Amino acid sequence: MSSPEIDALSQALSRLPGLGPRSARRAVLHLLKRREIALKPLIAALQAVEENLATCDICGNVDTANPCGVCTDPRRDAKLLCVVEEVADLWAMDRARLFPGRFHVLGGRLSALEGVGPGDLSIAPLMARVNAGGIEEVVLAMNATMEGATTMHYLAERLADCGVSVTQLAHGVPVGGELDYLDEGTIAQALRARRPVA
Amino acid sequence: MSSPEIDALSQALSRLPGLGPRSARRAVLHLLKRREIALKPLIAALQAVEENLATCDICGNVDTANPCGVCTDPRRDAKLLCVVEEVADLWAMDRARLFPGRFHVLGGRLSALEGVGPGDLSIAPLMARVNAGGIEEVVLAMNATMEGATTMHYLAERLADCGVSVTQLAHGVPVGGELDYLDEGTIAQALRARRPVA
Ligand SMILES: [Zn+2]
Ligand SMILES: [Zn+2]
């Protein structure tokens, strides 16, 4: 493992979440020993994504198409909109495959500490989507953190006069829990028991 | 995660050792959100390795140079040769940074069950290296498995009349243990207490 190229690859892989320095070295060796069936396909897969990477102009999802596959999926109910903090949360909700509507990614959460105000999040585009009509229910699926709750109540107030039903995920999401770390069963239960924002 | 490109990348990553389907999805998202500082550098690192990948003609190591960086390192003692089963074992030995000599990769171990005989391993090249002179000690660093022990005794017999000292790793490697999974301390201890093959 003395070559600079191999060291650089090992370091690049060790920066991925879930891979420490040791597992990165094992991954490198795995790739080196499988040039045709692992290394080249991985390069091709990364390039295909890199060349087509786009942020969806409608919902903020990251995809290889714009508008994204979620927004253009005709089987999804356009009357239902789920608002999440981050793209990772959209993917976590979508893994459960139990939300039949569309999504809106805020790109963060309100935070006095970090100086994040409404203008820093994708809230104006959210209001525009809702005001354009056709949406009947907005599910506010913020993380169950203090800042998530603040964001949820702010959005509920903004949406109060839009003529849409505004709901939140049921208790079931553990306090302090982040959606992206939950199993599908917990997310499914929280979705089924969703209720109007108080 | 509906686009075929993103699914393909997620699958390619999930085949790496240490990354399951969930951590692969997290890794994909990590890359998608960091196109310039993570995705492009990873592609470049993989390509640099892929373009220069080579198996060392001397020792069997996988590197981006041939002969490899270990074989051409002038600080290593050419009188000491460590024989290992796989490239992963060479790297594991080298991580401990306590073996000051060179290596020879057999490419496997003798196995009646799997039909692997001496002709299937890099044994003739090993004998040629030893017979070329200059080597004083050969450390047989096979895994502490039945097949590793069989391979070690076979090699010890072949090397008996070559005028070199033939040693093995000390007990310290757990029975059934594979070098690549051991911590550096265990490997270092086993190396320090190495003894002649009985
Ligand atoms: Zn979209
Ligand atoms: Zn070499």
From TrEMBL, chains A, B:
Xref: PANTHER family: RECOMBINATION PROTEIN RECR
Gene, per the UniProt record: recR
Record keyword Calcium present: no
Family annotation (InterPro entries): DNA_Rcmb_RecR, Rcmb_RecR, Rcmb_RecR_Znf, TOPRIM_dom, TOPRIM_RecR
Domain of life: Bacteria
Keyword DNA damage tagged: yes
Function statement: May play a role in DNA repair. It seems to be involved in an RecBC-independent recombinational process of DNA repair. It may act with RecF and RecO.
Taxonomy of the source species: Bacteria, Pseudomonadati, Pseudomonadota, Alphaproteobacteria, Sphingomonadales
NCBIfam families: recR
Name assigned to this protein: Recombination protein RecR
Entry's Gene Ontology BP terms: DNA recombination; DNA repair
Keywords of the record: DNA damage, DNA recombination, DNA repair, Metal-binding, Zinc, Zinc-finger
